[in-house]
Design a protein that fits this description.
There is one protein chain. By secondary structure, this protein is an alpha/beta fold. It folds into two domains: 85 residues, Rossmann fold (3-Layer(aba) Sandwich); 134 residues, NAD(P)-binding Rossmann-like Domain (Rossmann fold, 3-Layer(aba) Sandwich), CATH 3.40.50. Helices cover 38% and strands 16% of the residues. Strands 1-11-8-7-5-6 form a six-stranded parallel beta sheet. The radius of gyration is 19 Å and the shape is globular. The termini are far apart. The model has no long low-confidence stretch (mean pLDDT 96). Bound molecules: guanine (GUN).
Length: 299
């Protein structure tokens, strides 16, 4: 029995199915292009997660007919060398999109790299120009892929969050902040009342329990428990955490920031990990790459 005294389970929002539908449409559009759209991935140092993410993005790019190139720089690359490489890609007419996989060895290098990107090729939407366009609700920029993908997941539920309370756990530039900006927009799918919570927020439970929509991007396995959520809420789990699991051949399993097993008994909609937000991030990257190509080359 759950907290409402009934047996019930949330509807699971299947990111794999929604992402595959989007990728099918992208592939059809790519087939009509006069040349394949081309995205270049830049990776610095051997961050194991970044290696996996870039490999995954390249695999999906290949599946939809998008050309991709991965450039890997050593950990001791200088900012000057990195910016020179970015400048070359900015000027290359055969390159439509550039993605600098975060994190870079230093915050300063990461800032410099994002700033050096041609905003028209910034398919991740991290250049301050694109961040500014999003803040101004100007649709001509690129929207960061994870929040854009989450918005599609939320829209797939058919719910209207106008005037309702959306709570975002996490204030990163990659997920939290752009997510809040999207949910606040004066659009049919926006108009939410947004609260940001972060590591310094006092009494987080007070906010999470009042959330009609809860987006969790905090990086702590099973941080959100069943007693922290409002019955009937929608919960989006952005977390990707490895926890030890001797029963698995790899010795670990991947879990989100939400205690899925118990939270699903309380809420109406929830995303799984894996298979929720992750596939959508990649699908949105392909969408942004196609968009960048269409803006450059036309097709
Ligand atoms: N690191 C973690 N997530 C992302 C992402 O969506 N884009 C980039 N460039 N780096 C990341």
């Amino acid at each position: 029995m759950n907290q409402r005294g009934k047996f019930r389970m949330a509807r699971i929002i299947d990111g794999k199915i929604i992402a595959n539908d989007i990728l099918t449409e992208i592939k059809q559009a790519v087939d009509r292009c006069t040349r394949p759209p081309h995205v270049v991935f830049i990776r610095v140092a051997e961050d194991p997660a970044s290696v996996i993410y870039v490999n995954r993005k390249q695999k999906v790019a290949h599946e939809v007919g998008i050309r991709s190139t991965a450039l890997a720089f050593p950990a001791d690359v200088t900012s000057t060398e990195l910016l020179k490489a970015i400048d070359k890609l900015n000027r290359d007419p055969e390159v439509d999109g550039i993605l600098v996989q975060a994190p870079l060895p230093t915050e300063a290098m990461q800032r410099a790299a994002f700033l050096a990107l041609d905003p028209q090729k910034d398919v991740d939407g991290f250049h301050p120009y694109n961040v500014g366009l999003l803040a101004q609700e100007d649709g001509r920029g690129f929207v960061p892929c994870t929040p854009a993908g989450i918005l599609e997941l939320i829209r797939s539920t058919g719910q209207d969050f106008t005037g309702r309370h959306a709570v975002i756990l996490g204030r990163s530039s990659i997920v939290g902040k752009p997510m809040g900006m999207l949910l606040m927009q004066r659009k049919p799918w926006g108009n939410a009342t947004v609260t940001f919570c972060h590591s310094k927020t006092r009494n987080i439970v007070h906010y999470t329990r009042g959330a009609d929509l809860l987006v969790v991007a905090i990086g702590q396995p099973h941080f959100v428990t069943a007693d922290m959520v409002k019955p009937g809420a929608t919960v989006i789990d952005v977390g990707i955490n490895r926890v030890p699991d001797p029963q698995r051949s790899k010795g670990y399993r991947v879990v989100g920031d939400v205690d899925f097993e118990h939270v699903q008994e309380v809420v109406d909609f929830i995303t799984p990990v894996p298979g929720g937000v992750g596939p959508m991030t990649i699908a949105m990257l392909m969408k942004n790459t196609l968009l960048a190509y269409q803006r450059h080359a036309g097709c």
